[in-house]
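User: Could you check the structure of this?
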Amino acid sequence: MDSPHPPPREAGDDEPDDQPRAMRYFNRELSWLAFNRRVLAEASRPEYPLLERLRFLAISGSNLDEFTMIRVAGIEGQARRGIGSLSIDGKTPPQQLIEIRREVASLEDEQQRTLRTLVDALATNGVHIADETRIAPRLHKWLKDWFEDHLQPVLTPQAIDPAHPFPFVANLGMGVIFSLERESDRERLVEMVLIPAGIPRFVRLPGDEGSTWVPVESLIIRFAGEIFPGFHVLGDGVFRVLRDSDIEIEEEAEDLVRTFRTAIQRRRRGRIVLLELDEACDPEAEALLRDQLGVEATMVSKAQWMLGLRNLDQIVGEEDRPDLKFAPFAPRYPERILEHDGDCFAAIREKDIVIQHPYESFEVVVDFLRQAANDPQVVSIKQTLYRAGNQSPVIAALIEAAENGKSVTAVVELKARFDEEQNLKWAGQLERAGVQVVYGFTDWKTHAKVSMVVRREEDGARTYCHFGTGNYHPVTANIYTDLSFFTASPALGRDAGKLFNFVTGYVEPRKTECIAISPLTLRQTIYRLIDGEIANAMNGKPAGVWVKLNSITDRGVIDHLYAASKAGVTIELMVRGICCLRPGVPGLSENIRVKSIVGRFLEHSRIWAFANGSALPSARATVFISSADAMSRNLDRRVEAFVPLKNRTVHRQVLEQVMLANLLDTDQSWHLSPDGEYARVVPTGDRFNVHHYFIRNPSLSGRGGAGVEAVPKLRLRRGAA
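Assistant: Sure, the predicted structure tokens are below.
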């Protein structure tokens, strides 16, 4: 079913700007590329262990793949269809593509240089990548045997000529193309060998002295004679294909599940967006590939050394070298729950609890649901599911609850990009167990992270809620910093019920007591809170805004922050990724500072704090956590929750620990300048690393314990944030 009404018009759309758009806003796509450059910069930090640096390189490669498959594909589609819509900074699609391609080419060159440096450094530590020159003669036979036993049986050489149609190359598909000459009659032909998707990218050679990792494409080239007996190899080239991977759903879709299954199949055959080649690719083979795949010169990139850098994470994961990785740490289980002998409901009933992942264990979220599944007093469970992973204890707990006779409702979001297929599988399993599965709106995503448990107690039914800033995903919970807020507040419980009714039954709440819900009231709530700070500043009261987000791209929110800056409101933005707001511009944003933290963990929590007439941080401040970023899609086209933290302890923990520690970080921070450049912060005093701080002081939910230092009170030095 479609959304009940169109999204609200973005404020400022029809208002004249004081400056041209390009002077007021940064381009969204170029800002994202700048973020990925910061990720890549982590691969060059000498203080990081070498395999962790290789991991950052792999992440930057994976990020760039997704950017190409989604963002570049979308802008190319606009340009191809002649759509003249302008970006936030006033660029047409063709203008954006010119700048994007230039920046992508520069980023790819930097990735290849970084790879060369890391390969040399790893080699001095006994880890050799793609270094066939050091393969001992005794291992040549091992390699050949491995090729014949494991690789050759699954390879299918395919001739490229009028009698053989050009084979389909899947998205992210990789292969080797050969120019050959038959020995018997000197006839020349071209053959292609596609690498099956299930084959590991790298083969680890056995040996006691270090390790050697060889890419499978180099094995195919090395043993081409085994694949093509009776032929001379005249030339070869490795290639890789990226396709348009966005899924578009027609508004009139009658069966959302069937529509998504069809769309997933269609995505695998999406339009080719990029053809990647190795620099030494045979010219004849390259010409044939470009012709058969129908790609223009602007859609071809050449790597100096290795394609598909995202696959380097295999080496990081499988290489058993703890000396070349970050020291492991064990997430701490929340002490408040332990003090109640593991009874989540007793602990939450006593007082609200906030947990910060990954420093505190995600297992408490799972235990909350497991306890609900087995508690005879629990009547019902309602749960949103956006991304849950391949092995999900959350799904298992919901299934167990349904099998135990609970009323269980799961809102499964099919439109979670690249998780659509997995979510379809989870939906099927949940339905078979008796869970009522709801898919929400056709043209909105349900992105809110909410779990709601109703329990019979002596004084009547009580609702326990979990509100999160991140997904119910056990893997990302180990590497993303997110907040989990548990409460038995009756008002928040009633609001959570209204949110679920809105998604499951399209019952739009006329009013909520505490939370704001997008796309209904969230935008207006943020505007109202910013306007309140403007009023305070104009009345001579302290005024300030602290915000921690993944991205800020929404023009209406940015314009409100500009207005606040002009009124004298001090604004500190911690924006990890995309930032279209231009800080520090005289007469526009001189009171706004923007920083980005990129480090061991991916900063993912969304937090808003408003001074409310006092100097931040203050007990009078209003503090909210949310599942939403300051993006038009989150405010207008997604169901999101914006949750106030009113409990004094939770309020202080989030504002005076989480937010302040992020502001004080100097070790992993970058400042954004008015010209759009990011510069790494150079500490003027002692270095402070927010991730190290919370590893050493992990507990927001407890009171300290044996062997763990008490969480110190952080203090903000004015002008030093």
